[in-house]
Amino acid sequence: MKLITTLVMTTALTTTFIAAPIWAAVDDGGKGLKISTDRKERDLGWGDSQANMTMILKNSQGDTSERKMRLKSFEVTDDGDKGLTIFDEPKDVSGTAFLSFSHIEKADDQWLYLPALKRVKRISSRNKSGPFMGSEFAYEDMGSFEPEKYEFTFLRDESCAETMTCHVIESKPLDEFSGYTKIITWLDTEHLRPMKTEYYDRKESLLKTLKMSEWHEYKDKYWRAALMDMENHQSGKSTRIITHEIVFDTGLTDADFNQSSLQRAR
Questions:
Q1: 48-59 pLDDT tens trace
Q2: pLDDT, tens digit, 9 for 90 and up, residues 58-104
Q3: Tell me: the pLDDT tens digits for 186-207?
Q4: Do 152 and 33 form a contact (C-beta atoms < 8 A)?
Q5: ∠ CA 114-207-148, rounded to 5°
Q6: How far apart are CA 108 and CA 49, in angstroms?
Q7: CA–CA gap between residue 204 and residue 178 (Å, rounded)
Q8: Which of 209, 157, 199 is nearest to 179 (CA)?
Q9: Is the dihedral of CA 136, 138, 143, 147 positive or negative?
Q10: Which of 50, 105, 148, 150 could form an SS bridge with 171, CB 3.0 to 4.6 Å?
């Protein structure tokens, strides 16, 4: 799953789409860009997948609530990937669906279908820093990783995840509407899997940390994390996304990912 990566939704929505400029990847010294490009290239060719997931929201008092959802993903040649997230439980979010078209050289296209309104709303580029379905994941976290959208700097190699060594890479979003000034990612040196990611807000303060764990290999090549834990250091809230099952080569096509598919998603 791309969180998913690929993974993952709030109410800061408008129907106006703000066009973004064409981006180009830049690197200070070249090593950060090379590692990040290699990371992307290692995950090419997976095709399509479907996953069953649970999202657990925790507030600053420690109270939790759960949401059951499904994620359909489709790889696109020469552009970013497509994703369709469908919420099944609880009742107050059942039928809500989120569609994302990631892009390499322009802002991602994203739409949200709210059953109560029976309307599909486009998410403005200016609102991408808003929370995804009340979680600690932002809309801009929900697209596929595209190196062209960042300026990279290799910081260092260091021990991580107990027995591993990680490349530590700083990436600065080139999108003027990003909610982040910089992102620091720890990639294990063997498979280039993101073990930990720190997100810094527009004031350059640490906003949140994502930890990905319980990795599994699919099709003898593609790694996906079963657990994604996002902690907001400023609000005291957190979100856990658990992938219970993921299946590849399910027969999804480009036709399964359009605005009309949002309203008929079940």
A1: 999 999 999 999
A2: 999 999 999 999 999 999 999 999 999 999 999 999 999 999 999 99
A3: 999 999 999 999 999 999 999 9
A4: yes
A5: 75
A6: 20
A7: 12
A8: 199
A9: negative
A10: 150
State which CATH number among 3.40.50.1110, 2.50.20.10, 3.40.50.970, 3.20.20.80 fits the domain covering 3-245: 2.50.20.10
List the chain domain ranges. Answer: 3-245
Residue 125: per-residue pLDDT = 86
Q: What is the pLDDT of residue 261?
A: 76
Which residues, listed in sequence order, are joined to residue 56 by a DSSP beta bridge?
A: 66, 240
Q: Compute φ and ψ for 33, nearest 5 degrees.
A: -65, -45
Determine the average pLDDT of the residues in 214-236: 97
Q: What is the three-state SS of 52-67?
A: EEEEEEECCCCCEEEE
74, 254 Cβ separation under 8 angstroms? yes
Give the helix/strand (H/E) hosting 264: helix 259-264
pTM of the model: 0.87
- The mean pLDDT of 17-22, rounded to a whole number, is 34
